[in-house]
Each structure stands twice: as C-alpha cells, then as structure tokens.
From TrEMBL:
GO terms for molecular function: 3'-5' exonuclease activity; nucleic acid binding; nucleotide binding. GO terms for biological process: nucleobase-containing compound metabolic process. It comes from Peterkaempfera bronchialis. Residues 214-294 form the HRDC domain. This is Ribonuclease D. PROSITE patterns: HRDC.
C-alpha cells in the first residue's frame, strides 16, 4: 500500500478543524482505528506528536496534539465506540495525556499473540493476515518535527488505513481457534487498568548497571542519572542525547576527581562544555558526600519473592515448585499455540510458586491466581496444571 485511499488528509491544527473532526467521527459507523506517533529517542517523555484516526463514514484524520493539546471532546465523542489499537499499552498513556481514554478496545498486536502468530508487528501482521505490505521506513523518525514532511504523513495515514479490516480478520481467526473470549477478557483488562504507578528508583534501569558493585558507585549512578534527567526535561530532549548510560556507568566506576580525569572517559570528551563538566563533577561530589547509612542498597527494593537463582538455597521446595510450574506452563502454552507469557505472566507464576496456598488444590490455586489479578480464562487453564506441578514438587523434594 503506497497511498491512502482518500489521499493524505490535512493535519488538524486549529479549533475549527478539530470541531469538524469531532462531529465527523461522532457520526461515523463501527469501530475507530487509533494510532499515535511519539518522538522516542529525540524528545523527553512519551507524549504524542501526531494522532491518527480512521472510521467508516468519517475517513481518516491526522491531528496535531501539540497545536490541539486538549482532545477531551474527541475522546467523549468516541467514549462508546470500540477502539482498534495496535500494541495498546504503548499508545494509551500518551492518548490519556490529551484526554482520550477508551472504554472498549481491540488490540491487534495482542490478538496476534493470542492467535499464535510468530511476528506481531503491524507490518508483518497486515501482510500475513490481509496480504497488504506496509512501508515502515518512517517508524523511528523525529515526530516532533514541524511541519511534518508529506512522506511521514502518508506513512501515518496508512498505519490506520486497514486497522479495522485487520481487527475483523483477527476476530474471525480467534473465534475459529476458540480463543475469542480469552482475547476479549484481555482487552477489557487493558481498558480498565489504572494509570501505571511511577517507577521506584528509575535510575536502576540504567543499562550496564550490573557492572556497578559498590554502593558508593551506585550513589554516583543515581546522582548522574538524576542530573541527566533534569537537564533532559529542561531541554525537552531524550536523556540519551544528554549523556549515554554507558558514560554514566563508566564515570561511576572510575569516580574521577577532576575535569581532566572526567574528560578522559568515554562520553565526556573535548566536545563537552566546561560548565557541563562541572555539573557532572558536582554530581560525583554529591555521591562522595552521601553518608554511609544513606547509600542506596546493592539491590532494588521489591515486594515480591527473591530472584529465582537464590531459591535453591533459600527454599529448595519452592525452587522445585517453580521449575515444575514453568515447565507445565510452557507445555500448556505450546498446546494452545500462544506465548507462555500471554497465557500467564512469569511474575504471577513466581509469586504463587513462592507463596502457594496451604493446600495446593486446583481450587485453592485458582483463588490465589484470581487474587493476584489473573483473568478468568487464565485461571481456568492454568490452575489445574500449577496444582499438579506443586503436588509433584512436594513429593519429589
């Protein structure tokens, strides 16, 4: 597909055009295809820089959420409409920021996973299911660019061109496999999910952090990360464009005491301005000044079970339960032709294996799974095999 069927629509950038778009989509028929383009790797945060919609009777709309930052009216107009989104959990947060929240949705990526497709990107799914080839050469461009080039707008319009058609084909496929109710439960859970809670210690996601062993060095990673995050937010650029994770880890390991030593490290070379070098050195000095009792712990705080590699020493029976549970879930997933992580989340398997019910009957395991958020279809499939795996582990150890 090289061109949208009705051509590239003009980008909605003012209140008048937005009012017309809201009216057109409110009067449309059937589900609405929704997509959003972000500027990941270029800008700070995950805000939307273009929103695309398509609905029968309304055609395609391209909306600039920077020029039109409040799309609550559009969201309200589509409140009772099923949204068709590909990889919904990626797009829903940035859509919610501008006032758009679905009450019903169909996630074509998740549908592909449950149906057992090996490649679930929008391009491969469209080609495998519908026979259309979508060009994806603009997927990683800087969508904060203004004005947006015509080839990018064409690409964006094509992303929603056949999304409803893909939804209909996947619904039929899921129904033929007996999995449609499974998928609908998953979609309902996504639509009803609360906003994600802020991450605890987000600096611990720094790539290469495993190389940092000493708590003082971890404090340096934290101080450098926090400074980088503030700079990136103030400049509205991706944090990686301010300073790479590799540079943060390298500086934390070396703990240079002066500008010359810092400049010798990768990422802090001659192109780094003197004032910035002083700021990075200040972060390292703050890490040196942290009292011993206030240094970050070697491992991140968590409310779940310990890392599985430690189970054999801490609780051999629990380790046996987990091994049996993982094998049982993998086999069950293969039987039903879907990824094990979509059958039941690995975290949920770990938690129930670490703290199983007092009597690990299928009914008790089912109650434990429901209490931790598993969907009805997951409980019905997984509870019996977990109970059997737990019983076998208790006998074997």
């Amino acid at each position: 597909m090289l061109e949208p069927r009705e051509g590239i629509p003009p980008v909605v950038t003012d209140a008048g055009a937005l009012t017309e778009t809201v009216a057109a989509f409110a009067a449309g028929d059937g589900p609405v295809a929704v997509d959003a383009e972000r500027a990941s790797g270029y800008r700070y945060g995950q805000r939307a820089y273009l929103i695309q919609l398509r609905r029968a009777g309304a055609g395609t709309a391209l909306i600039d959420p920077i020029a039109c930052p409040d799309l609550t009216g559009l969201g309200d107009a589509l409140a009772d409409t099923e949204w068709v989104v590909h990889a919904a959990t990626q797009d829903l947060p940035c859509l919610a920021e501008v006032g758009m929240r679905p009450t019903r949705l169909f996630d074509t990526e998740l549908a592909g996973r449950i149906a057992g497709f090996p490649r679930v990107g929008l391009g491969p799914m469209t080609e495998n299911v519908l026979g259309y080839s979508l060009a994806k050469e603009h997927s990683a461009v800087d969508w904060s660019t203004r004005p947006l080039p015509e080839p990018w707008l064409r690409y964006a319009a094509l992303d929603v061109e056949v999304l409803v058609e893909l939804r209909d084909a996947l619904e039929q496929e899921l129904d033929s496999q007996g999995k449609l109710e499974w998928a609908l439960e998953e979609f309902a859970a996504i639509a009803a999910a609360p906003p994600p809670a802020p991450r605890v210690d987000p600096w611990r996601r720094t790539s290469g952090l495993h190389k940092v062993r000493r708590r003082r060095q971890l404090a340096a990673v934290r101080e450098l990360w926090l400074l980088r995050d503030r700079m990136a937010r103030e400049r509205d650029v991706s944090p990686g464009r301010v300073l790479s994770d590799l540079a943060i880890v390298g500086a934390a390991l070396a703990m240079p005491a002066n500008a010359q030593a810092l400049q010798a490290l990768q990422g802090f070379g001659p192109r780094v301005h003197r004032r910035q070098l002083e700021q990075w050195l200040g972060a390292l000095d703050r890490a040196r000044a942290v009292p011993e009792a206030q240094l970050p712990p070697a491992t991140a705080p968590h409310d779940g079970p310990p890392p599985p590699r430690a189970w054999a020493d801490k609780d051999p029976v629990a380790a046996a339960r987990l091994a049996g549970a993982r094998a049982a879930v993998t086999a069950l997933a293969e039987t039903h032709g879907l990824p094990a992580e979509n059958l039941i989340t690995p975290d949920l398997v770990r938690r129930v294996s670490w703290e199983p019910p007092a009597e690990a009957t299928a009914e008790a395991v089912a109650a434990a799974l429901r209490g931790r958020g598993a969907r009805r279809w997951q409980v019905e499939l997984v509870a019996p095999v977990l109970a059997a795996a737990f019983a076998a582990a208790e006998t074997a150890v």
